[in-house]
Amino acid sequence: MSFEWLKRYLPRGLYGRAFLILILPVVTLQLVISVIFIQRHFEEVTRQMSSEVARAMSVALARDNAFREVMLDFEVRPITEADLPTGTGRRWFDFSALVVNRTLSENLPNFVAARLPNDQEVFVYLRRADGLIEVTFDRDRASASNPHQLLVYMIFFGVLMTAIAYLYLRNQLRPITRLADAAQAFGRGRHAPYSPSGAVEVRNAGHAFLDMRARIERQIEQRTMMLSGVSHDLRTPITRLKLGLSMLDEAESEPLLGDVAEMERLIDAFLEFARDNAEAGAPEPTDPVELATRVVEDAQRAGRAVTLREVEGAGEVALRPVAIRRALENLIGNAVRYGTRCEVSVSVTRNALRLRVEDDGPGIAPDSREEATRPFTRLDPARNQNRGSGVGLGLAIAADIARAHGGVLRLGESETMGGLRADIVIAR
Q: Are 395 and 372 in contact (CB under 8 A)?
């Protein structure tokens, strides 16, 4: 049996689900005990006591000469039709009054009505041959006393024990939320302080996370150091090649110099892609609208057909401005390379930041968009017709920067320009 439909109504947070697991058994237990106890104790006792009262009244009504003797413990007074009550006079929470009223009506043949306005008195209205009478007696004779005490005690102690259990449970869940916050911060490129605590299983998970984070940071550091060494080692022979080629005839050296320049450009692009994100600085409060505006203005000064089309919302977002600027420049560079013009838009909401770059180029087929974000991928000839081919790192760098901010790079088709639409979406 599938319970998928039930998941829509369950809390999504850990605290909510833990509280639901805690409160459901307590409430269910209280309801079961309340129903059983009230059904078997208060209702049965009240029914028996009310039956005895009804039997005494029936005997008195059947023997008119003994009426006063039987009714010594009752107050009896004659009334008129106008004195009859219009309702039961029962309080909404007085459930035993229902049993009293029902039992008296079933056992008294001359029963007209009953009124139970409080916990002290019961008013019963009977019809005799000489007219109507009102019989008043103590409520204790017809129903069990204080039937609400059990419910009061159960509710009070149930709430008290639930609160104590929830405080203890919150202390047990706090280390899990701290671990989740540290993992989320690391996924967004931030190094949040964290020390394992809590139960043994949570501590083990915390230590495993710290080991994983240390290994990833060490691997990134080693990669950066290795690539820095490779850059230094490769630039020296490239410089020698350029010097040697400069001594040849121009006709012979021109194609070789082009190859050397291409090698140098590939090395620079690769180092830019593999560069540690920490070099761009720690996340800091940044105005994305102002940042996008500066990037567009710089691109316009460079002679690129770029415009800032739409700005929605305002506010500061925790970003690495150097890295975001690099991602926008790469997306704009791809857009003007494969199209004739480019439009940039910014949307800042309470939950997310979206930076959008659109062009009027040929776009990317849906089945090739995932491949386009991989390093050194060039979709020839679809996006390189009669245009300078890049090294296939523009979208890969933008996607890597988006992931470092805990976001994602989404590619689609521009509805306004017909070309590629690239969105950097970062959760706030």
A: yes
